[in-house]
Give the backbone structure.
Amino acid sequence: MTDVPSPAPAPRPASARRGPRFGPTILAAAATFLVLFEFLAFQLSSGRDPALGASVASDSKGVATRGVVHRRVIRTKVVHLPRPPSSQSGSPAASPTPTVNLAPAPAPAAATPSPSPAPAPAPAPPVTSSS
Amino acid sequence: MSTHDSTFRAMGSEVRLIVEGPACDGRDPAAAAAETIAFIAEFERRLSRFRPTSELSRLNADPRATVPASPLMLDALDAAREVAELTGGLVDPTLVDEIEAAGYRHSREGAVAARLQDALALAPGRKPAGPSPTRRWELIEVDHEAGVVHRPPGVRIDSGGFGKGFAADLAVEGLSGFSRCVVGCGGDLRVGGASADPFEVLVEHPLTGERDQKIVVGNGGVATSGLNVRVWKREDGGFAHHLIDPSTGRPAWTGLVGVTALAPTAVEAEARSKAALLAGPGGGAEILRRHGGLIVHEDGEIEPIGPIRLQPNRRVVIPMNAVAA
């Protein structure tokens, strides 16, 4: 038996020797996060909140806008506006209704003490003189 | 309370009428004042010596010894006699001839009086006046039942010595239902009414014209006689006035130029003021002593006599802050 020298171990292929690297993994994860974050942020800013659902958000926005417009037109301009001018003017020409004629116009005059008629001045003293 | 206050001309003088309501009989002051004004006009129409158609002028011209007369005329002649009796004949209602001889034949309404200081400078010596020895006023007899007056034809009667005061008294009697009233005919005023509130009456000085004295007058009369209003210059250069001395038949110059008298009635106040002026400083004070009055001497001095509530007529200034408060 002869001693045969043992051969030197063959180098391992590079691919086999490389393990997972930390940096690219972090970069990939961050990039993915930023992309998703920007997408969701865009959706929120445009009113499409994915947590509320696309159909619900759209319907509520449309109804609210129409309701404000309808209240302004019907109640403020058609129903309520004619009353204040008639009750504040107090003039028969502006509002011929009895409530306006009897309304508060005389009340302030009665409440103020100044309109009471001033007492007539006392007559000047009579004079006795040669006649 | 409503008040009527008016001034108008009648009997040759300014007439002042003040009527304060309410009246106990519900009359309106203005309506009562209108009745009073009408009465005074009727009084003048009947009793003026200067109206030829007046009842007094017709009586004076009537040749009969007994003449029918209206109730107003009979009452007036009663007043004339009472005035003469009260003054002992100093205020004599029968001096028509004498006053016409002095130049007072027609009304002096609108005539400008002469300056009294000039008249005093040329006047004869001062002496008290006296009654006429003839005492013609005693010849006047009034019969109310028969409605006639008896007097000798030719005895003429002048209402100048009692007419204004008598008219004021009658007018106030007609206003007796009101709370207060004043009727002033010329210088002769009568204050009446149910209220006890007196009137303040201003007294005009005959020489200065100032009204710097005032008398507080309750119900009663106040009258002023003076020489300053009815004084005129005669054709002979002398001066005359309307207050005749019965003893001489000529204007009296006694040392007084004005007298204001108080009395229960205006006609008595008028009689006392004229009599006091005719009596002069000494006798005049005695005539005024009972009810009070003022004597104005020729030098302008004012002498209060008897029970008189005389106050200076000062202007009262009320601070504005007192008014605002």
